């Protein structure tokens, strides 16, 4: 039996159950009353059956991969919604400015800079989004998916890279940083062009998708429009607060205003930029990789901690990975959840919380862990 046949047999899932899971997440995203949702993000990032380059060349392979992901989401005992896979968005907007996109055998995407001198922006004209090779493959996959998988479940929508992150990809970090001092006017011109293309590309995707998912990649996505996702790793980690407010915040705000709000993904420790985060217009949620290796969580009740302050104002998605768990728990996600994450979350619970539950095996689930986490957090919310 082929991978596709196996995946097709196991990806059926009741719409009533899907609606129930989406309703739980909507309570958190809307921030009307304190609420918690538990999700298993493992299927979203599971090792692919086929490399991305093979999926782009043969959509039956992408379908097998998407159906496997759907089946793993459906089997979860948590509030994980079923989403239909999309391609990684990294590189799509940068390609419009001449950056070349390479697809590695590991399944990752590498983007090579287009130019190193900011003066190139004076004559730069971005390519229309429907003429971009990578994004055109995405459009073709959306059509194929809607025909072969159907439209009952929302896509795991695109993650917009913040304009500053795209500029970093286009020019390279050192060149962009120097240009911010040498010719800030041209840097702003580039950032505005990137913002415009980002809006064009994502608007085109939303118009094409019959059942788009919100907010998009990095977050569990639902059918209700709760705004979109923007990845702000580079500026949130590398810029000072003042530089962030000058070179990133105005353009992120344009995205938020256009799409009705944003949820922000950011790797690393961004506590020094928390005030900047909360200045984003219509900010709805933030994702952080909780743990001593990235974003340390308070070990005592600290109402004035960054984690507590942010959690009182916006939705917080807390997950972990091999880096954030540090060497101590790197290969022990279940122990990390029980020994580090859950105790700290119950000390300083955000008002609106989404927690990644590291189920030991998505096929069999660890329902006891899910139940224990719900009980522990419910007592504090």
Task: Explain what you see.
The chain is an alpha/beta fold and 381 residues long. The chain has 17 helices and 9 strands. It has helices at 3-10, 15-30, 52-57, 59-75, 92-95, 133-148, 163-171, 173-182, 184-208, 233-238, 241-247, 249-259, 274-278, 306-311, 326-329, 333-347, 367-378; strands spanning 35-39, 100-103, 109-112, 159-161, 228-231, 262-265, 283-289, 315-319, 352-356. A 7-stranded parallel beta sheet has the order 1-9-8-7-6-5-4, with helices on both faces. Helix 13 (274-278) links the parallel strand 6 (262-265) and strand 7 (283-289). The longest helix is centred in the middle third of the chain and has 25 residues, at 184-208. It is globular.
Observed structural traits:
381 residues, TIM Barrel, 7-stranded parallel β-sheet, two-stranded antiparallel sheet, 17 helices, 9 strands
Describe, in short, the structure shown.
The chain is 46% helix and 11% strand. It is α/β, with parallel strands linked by helices.
The portion of residues forming beta strands comes to 5-15%
User: What is the radius of gyration computed over CA atoms, rounded to a whole number of angstroms?
Assistant: 20 Å
Q: Please give the CATH class.
A: Alpha Beta
| CATH A-level architecture | Alpha-Beta Barrel
Query: How many β-strand runs?
Result: 9
Number of helices: 17
| Domain unit count | 1
Which regions are unreliable across 5 or more consecutive residues at pLDDT < 50?
Answer: 6-11, 361-365
CATH fold description: TIM Barrel
Global structural class = alpha/beta
Helix content: 40-55%
C-alpha geometry: globular
Listing every helix as H and every strand as E from the N terminus to the C terminus, the arrangement reads HHEHHHEEHEHHHEHHHEHEHEHHEH
